[in-house]
Every structure is written in C-alpha cells, then in structure tokens.
Design a protein that fits this description.
By secondary structure, the protein is mostly helical.
C-alpha cells in the first residue's frame, strides 16, 4: 500500500503524535485513559510511536468499574507489559467505599 492509497491517515497520525508530544511537554502529570478497548489500544500505539525509541513518559490509567470481563483485564495487563508502559489502576468501588461517589 502506497502513501497515496492511505489517503488522509498519515496526516491524522501525524496530528495525533503531535498532540501526545505537546501534552507530555506542557502538563505536569498527564495520563492516558486506558479501557482495554480498540480506541485505547490505538492511542497507546500512537504514544509509543510518538516517544520512540524512549518509553511513553506518562502512565496508562485504567478506571476499573468492576464490570470487566476477566479476559479484558488479562489482555490489558499483557498489552501494557508488551508496550513497556506503566499502568495505574483505580477502582470505582474504592471511591464508593470512601464516600467520594
């Protein structure tokens, strides 16, 4: 597939990489929300590309609702390890138990 065959995708990828780099440069403690779904996977790949050959400079943040399939959590953990990213998990139930929600 040639660059012309991909149409507007190279431009969109370039813009996404730019945004990720700007966020990392301008904010003190950014994080990338990660649900384990297709959108999160794509943005994580873009982040890896944006900061290669170094690591992604911010963690992936998963908000665990307690309603995930076990396979989703297994995939999440395996994918995050494969990407070499840091994962932060916060549980909705913990906030409920503390009276914050």
């Amino acid at each position: 597939m040639t660059r012309a065959d991909r149409g507007h995708l190279p431009l969109l990828e370039s813009e996404a990489v730019h945004v990720l780099r700007e966020v990392a440069a301008q904010f003190e403690r950014p994080a990338l929300l990660f649900s384990g779904g297709k959108d999160s996977v794509v943005v994580t790949w873009l982040a890896r590309k944006a900061f290669a050959p170094g690591p992604v400079p911010f963690p992936l943040l998963h908000i665990d609702t307690g309603h995930n399939f076990p396979e989703t959590l297994t995939f999440r953990d395996r994918f995050v390890a494969q990407m070499g990213c840091t994962l932060v998990v916060r549980k909705v139930q913990d906030s409920i138990d503390l009276g914050r929600v």
